[in-house]
Amino acid sequence: MSKSAIGKGMLVLMLLLVSVFSAACGNNAKSGNTSNNDGKAVNQQEETPANTSKEKVTLKMAMWDSNNDFIDFLTDKVSEFNQENPNVTVELESFKGDGDYLQAMKVRASADSLPDIYELKPNWLNDFKENLTPINDLAVTKQNQYAATYAIDGNIYALPSVSFPELVYYNKSIFEELSLEVPTTWPQFIEVLQVIKANDKYIPYAMGGKDAWPNYPFNEFLPHSISGDENYLSSTATEDEPFGEGTVFYQGYSQIADLYNADVMGPDPLGTSWDQATDLFVSKQAAVIASGLWFMPTYSSKVGNTDDLGAFPMPYRMTESETLKLMTFTDQFYGINSNTKHPEEAKAFMEWFYSPEVYQTYIDTAQLNSAFEGVEANVPWLQQFYESNPIEPFVYIPGDAEYTRISNAIQLDVKALGQDMMAGKKVSDIASELNGKWKKAKNG
Hints:
Strand content: 15-25%
Distance between the termini: 97 Å
Structural class: alpha/beta
Radius of gyration: 30 Å
CATH architecture of the largest domain: 3-Layer(aba) Sandwich
Low-confidence stretches: 1-53
CATH superfamily of the largest domain: Periplasmic binding protein-like II
Shape: globular
CATH class of the largest domain: Alpha Beta
Number of domains: 2
Number of strands: 12
């Protein structure tokens, strides 16, 4: 072969190699790969903003709330996340009240169609734990003051958004008119209500018994409080007959019966709804009403101020020698569906949702107490209450999985029991029926 032919062949080979090398570089550029000084591949797409490199994603978020103003606030707040993250759209679905909401979520759970993110109460966590993703690894989980308290088998499934004290509200002007002092024991509480009744001008206690749930400060919380054990409900799951005479339940329900039998809740407590009871209190036709801190903004919106609104801890104790506890509730838990198709986006939303800047506006709008370290609620009325009542909180903790299993099996509804008691049912009959059902379900 001539030198000319060889030269031409070498030229062709060199051009071919250049072409192949250029094509390889081009493919690397298209795939976003290059090399660093160590010769290791670096993905340049990681530097590309997520909102331009990812597909469009829609997250469904469900909640309940009877306060339309707060729903409007959340809708506006979530739209901010949508603007900051154009690839992710969060759509809110709200329900009027937690009763209808719970039933809807149970139906959806059975059909595997739960929203990506949904709201829960603490005593629902065991029912939905199979439908929730553990979120132990989220940064905001570690900043939540109560999350670990509600862990199940070492996993945290949802974050409480708020905490608040359970209070007895009273119209200060009525107490002043009748020269009444704030009661600090259960007998004193009943006595104050009887004095108001004897005056025959005001309904002593506004009870919305028609709706059942307003009796929860008594039928749900009283035995729990006097037990002195925040894990009282879980403890009952270890007993065959936790309701009979001599038990905390029987003692607590006997105290409740004394209140109901005192006839201090107006002419028709079972025919009065919560909304009607609220109106009776706000219009000063009733002197006293009990609920969580969430009632305070409702009162303020109706009256325009809180000048005449007083509050004290529900005095569950029988004597002043016992510790006066302030029942504290955590609420508005949010968790992520275990079957969501977009777990990373859902986690990113949770991190944003509970970030200090966003969460501060949440807690200030809700006018409830903070559940996160480093964020303080701007609620002057609440701050004044705590200054006047330096009492250690007693945190409500729902029962464990075994308690949940047994109580579900017997369809235990303590609020319905409250209605039965207002209608005249005896504690001894309630205890006997519950013990029979409980023992059978526990050992069955």
